[in-house]
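Working notes for the structural subgroup meeting. M.R. asked for a predicted model of this chain before we commit to crystallization trials. I am recording the input and output together here so anyone reviewing the notebook later can reproduce the run.

Input as submitted:
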Amino acid sequence: MDYVYSWSDFVGNIGVALLIGTFAMLQFDKINPKGFWYSFNNLLVALLLLVNLYYKPNISSIIIEIFWILLSIYGLVNYFKSRSKEHVDG
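Returned structure, recorded in token form:
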């Protein structure tokens, strides 16, 4: 079976690079896991990987990415809720 590297693979690889970079920043305490950028980067990673999965489907990976998106959105909503609460309390 021959593997053909396509533009969707490139998009997916950008997502992988962002995932690795975000995880590294988390481990080196350069990013707050409750902050905007952590959840935003994770959302972007999942969307980029879904582009690749659209063209080269793998049901298990699609399920992971859907939950990754939902949890990232949850994190972003909580981030914005906490910021608005700080403005009200502050």
